[in-house]
Amino acid sequence: MADFDELRPEVQQFLHDRASALDHDAAPVAAPEAEQRVVIHSLEPSRRWRRTPAAIAINARRQPVLAAAVIAALLVGSVGGFAAGRGSAPSRATVAARGSTQDKSTSSTMVSNGSVGFATAGAGFGGGEMKKLFARTTADGVTVRGYLQTNSGPVPQPMCPTNQWCPPAECNPTSFFNAEVSNNDAVSMGGNPVFPLDAAADNRGEVPLGQMEGSPASVFMVQTNDQVTNVRATWSDGAVDEMAPVDGWALVAHQGAASSSSIVAALKDGSTLELNSRANNSYPVSCQPPPPPPPELPPAGSEQPADVAASKQGVTDAYKYVFTAGNDTTKNGDYIEDVESVKSAADTTKSNFPEASATVSVEVGEIRFLSADEAALYFELKYDGGALFGQQIGYAKLIDGHWKIERDTMCMVLGWGGGQCDPPPDPARSTSAGSAPQPGTYNGPNGGVSSSSSAAGTIPPSAN
Amino acid sequence: MPAVDEPVAFREFVAIVEPKLRRALVAAYGADVGRDATADALAWAWQHWDRVQEMTNPAGYLWRVGQTSVRRSSRRRVHEVVDGREFDLELIDDRRGERQVEPALAGALDALSPQQRAAVVLVHGHGYSLSEAGDALGCSTSTIRNHVARALRRLHAALEVDDG
């Protein structure tokens, strides 16, 4: 049998050449690059607790740049996030800005000092015994086992600065769901703290299985309340797996590389709830700090429309039409000022973020009339496949008897996804609020840099 | 209390750990993917500096973090394709500068498991000792020895060497 000591010269030469080539091609990573780098996905090796908000807070000062974002921003990322928007990012994913503090994914990835289910429990947590909830094997041979473990030791509490938002106690849970999964070629573990639910059921993410072993399987953890009777997942190849949740947890799995197309929870009252199968909602919205207060709308003008109610409806209709996926885009000219001048930008944005374009919807808030023929309003776009930027200020104009979205507002929105208006919009009327990028700052759907760097997100309307 | 000397300590840590971490990850996954994973792993180390400082073998742990990064990015690429969007799939192709001693060797090396590939390149490409390679990959010397032996067996097989 050949031993490593019996190295053939040609193999030695080949390996030496390979090593030299790799050294040449992969430049060293300097410390400042690491300090500034933002990672958008969980990197914690499995088999560990995810870090709780308390632990996140403790480590806050070590995040690059402004710890200034304070604990509130730390704990989430959806507020402080710059933009995800990568086609690769999970739906509705949000990442922290380069140089900001904490990203949402971190909340689902960080690990506490202790562990659950392992002998290495460290300071702060004491791993309790795991209660077996269920074990089953899917029709295609993926075995899933669910365990619930409750810490026996003290749980660190969040360190929240005075007068700052602090997560509710249930966001620092003492119980943890463990998923142990296997197929013929691989075994893996995952888990999620027993966080409060945002709805009757939440997809708590995927448990990686078999990717490196060449035998990939898709496994989803779903947390439910006691109203859910069944969780059913369907994959793109037609495979279906389902189970009744046990103590609020279900694991649905399928052998193969197919991506999931839907996860649906059935409730006792006969209704169903579709979960986003590609979003990792491992950290509940209720545990995230509230968004910053929106900027103030400009003051109302002295002159108001003759029929304020009808005008408000006209403004709302314009925003609803343009920012609702599926509407006939050829009629957008009825609702957008100078639509021809934004078509190119709209095409670019739509191309960069097709999923967001295909799922966009809008909520219109307060409308204030600056004059009889101009309005300012709050609006918020929702969509999949891009970072959400929260409430924004938009403008509308009465043109030829029809309320239309002002070009400046359209350019602001399109700019989030890379669409550049020519000529550029009036900065005073196209300044994004919150974490949304400003026009001209777009870096491309992949951020223009590495896969883990910050990138601009989008909300593409269907303005074609 | 903020530790003002933390960046200094971290930079010293990077200076020591980065070369072997990067070499291991690029050997396993190619220059682009491996370097990206190295940067991710070191970013993770910075964000978890308290924990990293207490580890007995931080390089080995970061190797696992880097592997997770690679897995995540691989899965992201799958999703991108599903979404109907086009992205570059980074293939392991770092053969520039190699003398074409035996074309089958490159394919045989790529066919190894990431651990085997990293082990054999570290030991016989970079000249690491088994112990040093074990530190980099977070495993024992005997495990590295096995990885290297198995890797060489397959490389020799590519040369149609009788290793029996």
Task: Describe this structure as you would to a colleague.
The complex is a heterodimer of chains A (464) and B (164). Chain A has nine helices and 15 strands. Chain A is an alpha+beta fold and 464 residues long. Chain A has three domains: 75 residues, no CATH class; 158 residues, no CATH class; 122 residues, Nuclear Transport Factor 2, Chain: A. The longest helix of chain A has 17 residues. In chain A, 53% of the residues are buried. Chain B has a single domain, classed as Butyryl-CoA Dehydrogenase, subunit A, domain 3 (Up-down Bundle). In chain B, 48% of the residues are buried. With 164 residues, chain B is an all-alpha fold. The radius of gyration of chain B is 18 Å and the shape is elongated. In chain B, 73% of the residues lie in helices and 0% in strands. The interface between A and B is large, with 70 and 85 residues.
What structural category characterises the helix and strand content of chain A?
Answer: alpha+beta
String of helices and strands of chain A:
HHHHHEEEEEEEEEEEHHHEEEEH
Termini separation of chain A: 67 Å
Largest sheet of chain A: 4 strands, antiparallel
CATH C-level class of chain B is: Mainly Alpha
Mean pLDDT of chain B: 76
What is the H/E order of chain B? Answer: HHHHHHHH
Helix percentage of chain B? over 70%
Radius of gyration of chain A: 25 Å
Radius of gyration of chain B: 18 Å
Counted up, domains of chain B total 1
Q: What percentage of residues of chain A falls in helices of 4 or more residues?
A: 10-25%
Q: For the largest interface in this structure, which chains are involved and how many residues does each contribute?
A: A-B, 70 and 85 residues
**What is the CATH T-level topology of chain B?**
Butyryl-CoA Dehydrogenase, subunit A, domain 3
Number of strands of chain B: 0
